[in-house]
Amino acid sequence: MKNVLITALIIVIHHGIRSQEPKHMVLNELPEKQLNELISRKMVSGEKGTIGYFTFKKGAEVPWHQHPNEQYSLITQGSVKVYIGKTETLVKAGEVMVIPPNVPHRFIALEDETIDIDFFTPSRMDWINGTDNYFNEGPDKVKEEPWNLKVDQPELFAKVDHAVGNIAFTPQGEIVYSQHPFFAPETRVSIYDRETKTSRPFPNEAWNTPNRENDHYFSNVLGIRNDANGIIWILDMGQRNEVTPKIVGWNTRFDTLERIYYLPETALAATSQPNDMVVDTKHGVFIIADEGIGKGGNGEKAALIVVDMATGRTRRLLESTRATLPENVPITIDGQALQVNGHHLLVGCDGITADEHFEWLYFAPLNGTKVYRVRLEELLDEGLAPSELETKVESYASKANNGGLSIDRDGNLYLTDVESHSISVILAKDRSTHKLMDDQRMAWPDGVSFNAVDGYMYVSAAQVHLGAAFNNGTNKAKAPYYIFRFKPLAKGLMGR
């Protein structure tokens, strides 16, 4: 029975092979890795999942750990004890243990030659990358619960009357934020007064009021970032009005317009939706994440857009590649899968950030199981053909369906998990993903960004999934809308 099962599973999934391309493999011929003196593992992995075949000696321990992957553990021989929090479960031969994503757990084998077959979805990127170092701790090491077994709650910072998209900051630490365009707000960008606990249009009412004379107004804004010079960079995706998408820089030190960069048709697809951006002051470029869901798009034209700060010249890169395309992983919140016109909402390249020295660009589709990265020097190398550039993109770590993306000085990545009302962190030391904090009031956490004045990261809760488009024409979103904040594991970075 054991061998039949393994054969059936391996037929459908193999490292480097699409699930549509079956390949029969022999279990005994798979490479075996000795994880420690008591544990060995064979593994196969594909685009959507990973299978691990473990052999345990009596007393072998898989120490406390957690991962964003859903796990199915089938014991075919022997028995194990599974610890989840303070709960202990005996799992014997012929029994299965299902472990949800991001749940801390540990295994102890009770018999020699215990065999455990684990199936994970999505793929175990830490195994593939060789960063699963928790196995090396062994049974004689200190058996401590993981650092984040206790999931914290963020601090509720503000309540406002409209949905908040992304957040930026003035040199004084004042919060400037986009009102989420999903709800077609009258005011596109606002600034929050923490003393009066009220908001007003930013930079003024005129820039939030469409007119027929020129395009010096905001049409539809989500992405917004600040730089070290006190400039708030505002990404206007257009769409609501007949205007060209643009980046508007407002100098908060002098309360004046700094510059406008236009995104010409050559930089856009018919379904473009410029969502968020990185302000790279080292290389002098903006890098924009284009979700590819504008005008009813399904994300298949998602891409990155590069804008040269000096010349305004634009380039469209990595369109319709594995790193920008959405995966067929539906967004499911509180048991409801989000659909538009009978089809699952699939959003392409969304969250985007860069490390302290602008060496690496990190980005990810909203619907997807992986965060990707590419060296900025390679991304910006115009001598690389599109096919060459694609080979330079790395699969970095596993994730859930996420919105915003930020990073701290140590390289830890922060992701807003839209499905579980939570914030996750990908640790730089081993690329492992952990739930950092959650709050049921954090409904559709979207933008996350660092305030260099007070040292907090701020997170919006936009309630997008409660909008009329996903609820048979009834808008279930309602005020108040929340802004949360939390202290990152290390100091955050200006403009991220």
Key features of this structure:
globular; 38 strands; disordered N terminus; Neuraminidase; 4-stranded antiparallel β-sheet; single chain; Jelly Rolls; 2 domains; 6-stranded antiparallel β-sheet; 4 helices; 496 residues; mainly beta
What does this structure look like?
There is one protein chain. This protein has four helices and 38 strands. A hairpin with a 5-residue loop joins strand 32 (402-407) and strand 33 (413-417). It is mainly beta and 496 residues long. The protein has two domains: 2-137, Jelly Rolls (Sandwich); 155-486, Neuraminidase (6 Propeller). Residues 1-19 and 138-145 have low confidence and may be disordered.
Known CATH architecture of the largest domain: 6 Propeller
Biggest β-sheet description: 6 strands, antiparallel
Count of helical regions: 4
What's the end-to-end separation, in Å?
52 Å
The mean pLDDT is 90
Low-pLDDT residue intervals, each spanning 5 or more residues = 1-19, 138-145
Amount of helix: under 10%
Give the total of domains: 2
Rg from Cα? 24 Å
CATH superfamily of the largest domain: TolB, C-terminal domain
Residue fraction in strands: 35-45%
Count of strand segments: 38
User: What's the CATH class of the largest domain, please?
Assistant: Mainly Beta
